[in-house]
Amino acid sequence: MQSGGMTSDLHGPLSRYAARLHGAIGAEHHVASPLGAWLLLALCATTTTDPEPVNRPAADGLADALGTDLTSAAEVARALLDAPHPLVASATALWLRPGQGDGEPSDWRAALPATTEVGPLPDQAGLDAWAREHTLGLIERFPLRVGPDVVLALASALATRISWTDPFEVADTGALGSGSAWAGRLRRVLRSPRRGHRGAIVSTAQAGDVIVHSALAQAADGAGLVVLSVAAAPHVPPAEVLAAAYQLSAGAADGAEPVGRRSLFDLPLGDTPLWTLREEQVRTRARDGREERHTAVLPCWSARSEHDLSAPALGFPAASAALATALALPVQDFEARQAAMARFGRYGFEAAAVTGMFELTSMPPEGVARTAELHFGHPYAVVAVATDKRADGKTGPWHGVPVFSGWITEPEELLEADG
Fold first, then answer.
1. How large is the average pLDDT for residues 236-246?
2. How far apart are CA 320 and CA 41, in angstroms?
3. CB of 380 within 8 A of CB of 408?
4. Strand 117-120 with 89-96, pairing
């Protein structure tokens, strides 16, 4: 499978999976990595790629969640994980309790990405250390608590910490517009610089007219990360804004003009909830003497979230059944969760996610478990998309892949140190 084809093949399935995941989470302030969960499911696909798997319902359910056939999903996972992106740290692991499943045929293990760690099940301190090590320290604890009933664990980790190629400028919060509910809560916000950032007003099928802003971080070898912010009218449901954001992210890695981009000369002057449009006399080299400029004003924001991934539509019940069948494990239940965080500021962006799945025996663990989920609020979607252009002019497997996304409803004050 060619790298360019693989990228385009992945974007559709990943967009559909993102719609399921964000839909299950709801409209509260959150961040997630649909890619992190999808990669974990794709690892499970290596157990069921036979033409006629023993557990056909599990194989079909897994393929439905992945949005593609199992062989293709396994190939995509290998291509991404075995050719790491310079700006996106990635890792996967499979751990077994000694004596459980490790005596079974190992063909399915050979199909795992070469970079996937395989070994004995760590204790909780070991799992937490793995999460910290593979997320640049951004996720301190593994999202699941290990107990004596865990016979197998799967994990994926993704992390990035980038600096904008062109940092934001600082503006008074009044620049958000007279109708902004945040004017009384913040003092300063971010304004896009004159060069280096992109903006547009785009007509979309999902969310109507939306405003789009993208900021870029670029490594020396041409690989990068584009963070896309997309806002619609206040009444548009978050699911529709996120769907529009994922559609627009398809061309973000190449800096392509979005389909449906509206000319500013087709819009009336004045204020709307999404933009202010003004006209002035300038000197311009535009061919028809009509120049279009876009600036964007955004708040700083951050989020930490944990997500239960046990809903059938998210694919982990099917993945659990497929693994149990392939390894002949005495599995009675499973757990699957993701911990994610992200922070967007004047000088850069950082984000990380750890996704974990446990296969459980019938013996329940003893003790007490507490789970805390942080809920915030904010009205625009964010998708971070990898760029992967190599020195020879070809694109690598990460090019155009959405890595993180979120629904942001709670802005933050700009730090004094960033002013």
1. 94
2. 9
3. yes
4. parallel
Q: Which of 7-11, 143-147, 236-240 has the lowest mean pLDDT?
A: 7-11
C-alpha 209/C-alpha 245 separation (Å) is 12
Query: 337: burial class by Cβ within 10 Å (0-12, 13-18, 19+)?
Result: buried
Could you give phi then psi for residue 14, rounded to 5 degrees? Answer: -70, -35
What region does 67 belong to: left with phi over 0, alpha with psi -120 to 50, or beta?
left
d(CA 344, CA 382): 10
For residue 126, pLDDT beyond 80: yes
Q: Is 326's pLDDT higher than 80?
A: no
Q: Is the Cβ–Cβ distance between 310 and 336 less than 8 Å?
A: yes
Residue 275 reports pLDDT greater than 70: yes
What CA–CA distances, in Å, run from 397 to 54, 84, 354?
Answer: 32, 9, 21
DSSP annotation string for 136-178: TTS--S-SS---TTEEEEEEEEEEEEEE-SS--EEEEGGGG-T
Percent of the chain with pLDDT over 90: 47
* 254 phi and psi angles, rounded to 5 deg: -100, 0
- What SS3 class is residue 184? coil
Q: Are the CB atoms for 384 and 351 separated by under 8 Å?
A: yes
pLDDT of residue 49: 60
Confidence category of residue 90, pLDDT binned at 50, 70, 90: very high
Of 73, 71, 77, residue with least CA distance to 53: 71
Domains of the chain are 3-163+301-366 (3.30.497.10)
Cβ-based neighbour number of residue 219 at 10 Å: 14
Cα atoms found within 13 Å of the Cα of residue 243, Cβ hemisphere only: 14
From residue 357, alpha-carbon distances to 80, 117, 142, 268 in Å are 20, 15, 10, 52
**How far are the Cα atoms of 312, 318, 357, 361 from residue 329, in angstroms, in the given order?**
21, 15, 15, 8
Length of the chain: 419
